[in-house]
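Protocol step 4 of 5: obtain the predicted structure for the target chain.
Materials: sequence only (see below). No template structures provided, no constraints applied. The aim of this step is simply to have a reference model before the mutagenesis design in step 5. Sequence pasted as it appears in the construct record:
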Amino acid sequence: MAPPHQQAVEAARDLPGHFASWQVPRAYVQLGAGFDPEGLFDRVLGRVAMATAGLASARPSAAGCPLQMILGQIGETTVLVGHGHRYSYEDASGHEVVLPIAAAALAGIRDVVVVETGMALREDLASGSWLAITDTINAMGACPATGYLELIGEPFLDMTDALSQELNAEIINAAAHVGVGLRLGVYQGTRGPQFDTPAEAAAARRNGADVLGHGVVPEAILAALLGCRTAAMVLVAGAAASYGGRRLRQAAVRDVAGFCSKGLVRALRGVFAPPEGIPGSAVGLA
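Step 4 output (C-alpha cells):
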C-alpha cells in the first residue's frame, strides 16, 4: 500500500474524474455523524462513495456515517461536502481520518469548514446551541501530520491561527443574518469512542475547554499545515458526563444532529449564497 501522503496525492489527482462536471470548489465542508445535508444544494453535480474515490476503506462506518463526497452548487458557489468521515477510534493509524481533508486541499480547495457535535462543559450551553470554535486542545495522543510530512513545507507551524478567525467571523456574520447564532468556544478532542468520564470532563474544563468531542482536531491541524483557512462549527448535543447526570448515548447525539440539520443548512446557505440584500460572505471569494 502506498504511504499516506502518496494516497492523498493520488486521490486528489483522481477526484475530478469522479464527477461529470468538475471545477475546483470554493470550499470543502465536512459533516460529522448524524448531520443531514438535505436542502443544502440548489444543484447536485454528483456524488461518490469515499471508498470508490480512494478516500476510505470499504468497511462500514462505526459512527453510522454514509462516507460520501457530494459536489454541488449553492447559489453560484461550488462546494464539496464530505457527508460523514472516519473518526480516530476507527483508524489506529489516523490516516483515513484526514485523507479526505488532505485530498481536498491538494485538489486546490483553500477553505475548509468542519461541522461536528460536542458535549458541553458549561452550564450555559444548552443542547442545540452552536459554537464557532476559536481554538482546540489535542487530547488524542497523536498528530495527524504523521505520514503527510512530505506534503508540508514547514511542519513546525505556529498553530496560533490554525483556526481562521477571519473565516470564523464570516461564518458567524452570515449565519446570524439567517437566524442562526453561533457563540465562541474552545474544543477539546479525545480519541473515543467512549464518552469522557466525569473526571475527564472536569480536567477538560480546567484545560480551558468549553466542549468535548471526538473530531475537529486532526482535520484542523492538517488543513492548517496544508495552507487552508479552516473553521469549525460545533453543535452542542448535550452536557458532558457528571456524577448523577444523565447517561450519555450516541443515538441521542445523532438525533440532536439530525434535528438541528435544518438550521445548519440554513447557516451554510447563508455563508455560500447570502439572501438578496445581505452582504455576502467572503468564504472562498477572496
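Step 4 remarks: The radius of gyration is 18 Å. The first strand starts at residue 27 and ends at 31.
Proceed to step 5.
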